[in-house]
């Protein structure tokens, strides 16, 4: 019988729920979080939790894999999906094995096609209400933190928390958030879809959005959330009046 490593309770965040942490390879982490009935954390929920718990929390000081994933295909734009294809346990196991060898994981071209079709259906929607985003860049770039409420990527990832998270980062002296993508030349050398899982770095490394990691085989952080009903942790939907979380800052004379 397979032994599943138990996740540890890292925090209980007001308005969100219990956050569990698994320091095992990605496929094992998915199983571990499932045992706690926790879903892998989204970038939106991790941003919200960082704001609520503050700069000195482990949530802000340690990076984490989140539920989003990047899809790459030769001569095609990069796609970012709210629900990564690697949340499928079979694909996750294969990706872990490839990462263990130092390789990126590639799979059928049809996987990209499926997500591209979804992206095309949604491309006229607000980024707040898309499941797949077509990136307009294929190389690394930066998003100014004072533009989070206007940038497609940050609105797509952080949803109703985008502006608040930008303020939180600026308060912590982060004026730009880097976005890292798999090298275009590598992508164009492959005929298949290359998949990576999004890693949201800690604040000491500018909360980088990493779409070029191949460390799924390492025993590093994967977080999951067991959500309480209602509150700020609910899924953002079109027309929702979810309020942005309030940022608690230390008192200063200013």
Order of helices and strands: EEHEHHEEHEHEEHHEHEEE
* First-to-last CA distance: 60 Å
Overall form = globular
Radius of gyration: 18 Å
Helix content percent band: 25-40%
Please identify the structural class as seen in this structure.
alpha+beta
**Low-pLDDT windows of residues:** 232-245, 250-254
**Main sheet attributes: strand count, strand direction, barrel closure:** 8 strands, mixed
Oligomerization status of the protein chains:
single chain
Arithmetic mean pLDDT: 91
Percent of residues in β-strands: 15-25%
* Total number of distinct structural domains: 1
Per DSSP, the total helix count is 8
Tally of strands: 12
Structural commentary:
This protein has 254 residues and is of the alpha+beta class. The protein has one domain. Helices cover 29% and strands 24% of the residues. Helix 1 (26-35) packs antiparallel against helix 4 (89-100) and helix 2 packs across helix 7. The longest helix has 14 residues, at 109-122. It is globular, with a radius of gyration of 18 Å. The model is unreliable at 232-245 and 250-254 (pLDDT under 50).
What's the helix and strand layout?
Layout: E1 8-13, E2 17-23, H1 26-35, E3 39-40, H2 43-53, H3 58-61, E4 64-72, E5 79-81, H4 89-100, E6 105-107, H5 109-122, E7 132-134, E8 141-144, H6 152-158, H7 162-171, E9 176-181, H8 184-188, E10 193-200, E11 209-211, E12 221-227
Parallel strand pairs: 9-11
Antiparallel strand pairs: 1-2, 2-12, 3-12, 4-5, 4-10, 5-7, 6-10, 8-9, 10-11
Helix pairs in contact: 1-4, 2-7
Could you give a quick summary of the protein structure above?
This protein has 254 residues and is of the alpha+beta class.
């Amino acid at each position: 019988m397979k032994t599943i490593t138990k996740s540890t309770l890292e925090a209980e965040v007001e308005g969100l729920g219990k956050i569990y942490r698994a320091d095992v390879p990605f496929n094992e982490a998915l199983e571990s979080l499932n045992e706690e009935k926790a879903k892998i954390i989204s970038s939106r929920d991790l941003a919200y939790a960082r704001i609520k718990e503050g700069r000195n929390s482990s949530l802000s000081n340690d990076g984490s894999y989140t539920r989003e994933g990047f899809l790459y295909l030769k001569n095609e734009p990069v796609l970012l999906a709210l629900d990564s294809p690697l949340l499928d346990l079979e694909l996750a196991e294969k990706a872990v094995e490839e990462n263990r060898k130092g390789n990126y994981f590639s799979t059928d071209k049809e996987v990209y096609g499926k997500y591209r079709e979804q992206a095309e259906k949604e491309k006229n929607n607000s980024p707040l209400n898309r499941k797949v985003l077509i990136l307009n860049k294929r190389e690394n770039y930066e998003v100014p933190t004072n533009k989070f409420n206007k940038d497609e990527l940050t609105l797509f990832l952080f949803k109703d928390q985008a502006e608040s998270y930008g303020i939180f980062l600026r308060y912590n002296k982060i004026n730009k958030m880097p976005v890292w993508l798999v090298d275009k030349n590598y992508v164009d050398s492959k005929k298949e879809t290359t998949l990576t899982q999004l890693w949201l770095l800690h604040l000491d490394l500018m909360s980088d959005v990493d779409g070029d990691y191949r460390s799924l085989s390492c025993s590093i952080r994967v977080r999951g959330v067991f959500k309480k009903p209602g509150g700020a942790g609910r899924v953002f939907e079109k027309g929702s009046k979810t309020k942005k979380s309030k940022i608690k800052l230390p008192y200063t004379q200013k």
